[in-house]
Amino acid sequence: MKKIFIIIVLLLNLFSFDVNSCKSQNYVKPLDGRLLLSGNFCELRSNHFHGGLDLRTGIVGKSVYAPTDGYVCRIKISRSGYGYAIYLKHSDGRISAYGHLQRYRKDIDRWVKNKQYEMQEFEVDLYLDSNIFPVKKGELIAYSGNSGYSFGPHVHFEIRNENDEPLNPQFFYNVQDDLPPKIKTIAVYPASDKSYVNNEHRSITIPVSGEYVANEITVHGAIYFGIEAYDYLNYINSRNGIYSVKLFVDNKLILHTENRKFSYEHGRDINSMIDYKRRKTTNMRIQHSYIAPNNELYQYQKSENQGIIEFYDNKVHKVKYVVADIKGNQASVSFRVKSTSEDKDFGIKRDSSVLFYYDRENNFSQPGISIHFPEKTLFENMFFDFKTFGGKKYAPMYKIHDEFVALKNYYLISISLAGVANSLKEKAVVVRKNFENKTETYCGEINGDYLSIWTRSFGFYSIAVDTLPPVVTPQNIPTVANKKISKHLKVRATDNLSGIKNWAGFVNGQWVIVEYNKKNNEFTYYFDDKAKHGQNKFKLMIYDGVNNLTIYETGFYVH
Ligand SMILES: [Zn+2]
Hints:
By secondary structure, the protein is mostly beta strands. It folds into 4 domains: 20-171, Glucose Permease (Domain IIA); 182-339, no CATH class; 355-465, Chondroitinase Ac, Chain A, domain 3, CATH 2.60.220.30; 471-558, Immunoglobulins (Immunoglobulin-like). 7% of the residues lie in helices and 45% in strands. It has 4 helices and 45 strands. Strands 14, 15, 16, 17, 18, 19, 20, 21, 22, 23, 24 and 25 form a 12-stranded mixed β-sheet that branches. Strands 1, 4, 5, 6, 7, 8, 9, 10, 11, 12 and 13 form an 11-stranded antiparallel β-sheet that branches. The longest helix has 17 residues, at 2-18. The termini are far apart. 35% of the residues are buried. The structure holds zinc ion.
């Protein structure tokens, strides 16, 4: 008992250092004016929790300020993700991060460009010592933008603790919110081969329009529940995530989650928390009130039997969900389930020779393919499903388990290249087809006569060959005739299969910074001192994932 008490005290202390002590810190806002959240903390995104707040700016070029004293500790520029990003390390040990920027403050910008020229790379990830750019509370650091994977001007803003774990920034800033969340859907799931919902061994969803759901649901055996709910805020028309969920069965608290902080290390565990199949196949974002054995998320404040409830007693039970935003505005829904003792046989047969354990290493092989799951790849134990289909050009199509089952970590697939001519082996890629017949390509590593990839998806896998180089389409090439003065040159480039790996741009034979934005396939050279007045030569070399090369050359004119 004493031990437990000490652990609780320790946990409380850790937590208060993370969050509770922060209000007194009095951070200043990173932007002028009212903070408008077009996205909030831990919102359920595809394959990740949203790590911070999305601050809507309406336009690009707004000043971004340091919330408190510290220094620029990291600058990262990438073709996708956060685009132009900056990180500050603060004197209180926390880290703040800003993404989708247009550019950095002038002196920082110059320093970064020098580094890019030195390294001859557009994409850089630079860690800075404290003496290079110290910043004071409220000091300008950058300008807002729409770079990287952003579809509307905003700043992605994060606050992390000293272990680099994102904290809910709304503990630091007061954002007005008088609107309650809305519950959209409830869901009921069978949790064992023998349990059922409304006489069938499958989950159901019911739309919610008020505080009560009239349907009485029949349940038998091990069952868990799920909920889809969103929050709304004053001054902005945006559907955000909720802060807390409480599930009660017969007035007993079964599961309680709160979005105070999370760890990037466990970020992928979101796919175990949500209804992964419905997320993939519909727009529903249902949060399970069930914790899989290998789900390590911090959000669970309390759980009874991991959220699983056993129903065998022929009685009616009251189920209630209460959700809240961070300001305490609440919404609730109540419904009844009729528990039954009647057993049913659904004829489910399992082959125990392919029972894979989540806490062990698992291996599987068949002629032409071998699969390796390191320990803790899976969220829970499963009966592995595998089939081989013929008829493909370079290798069979392999069905590797079920694409609607989520994985926690990467596993290794090695597929034989015996069906690929020697001259083409270097151009071989692994392709995955999903339920919509969309193809995802993986560039692998050749090991002997096998091509190996690490992936976090199940589904249909085979081999394809990519012999086609990227295709370049000019967009904006300033010429002598075009008197409309332009300060940049732009082309688009796409690749059919393996995707664009790297590129290099040259002006009059000298390497220059060519920006690549993956979301619109644009390559842009903003004129700098490498372009002279008058006629210039531009050359762009673009490689795809298997090193097929396209060289694009053009003249351009600087007026
Ligand atoms: Zn964001």
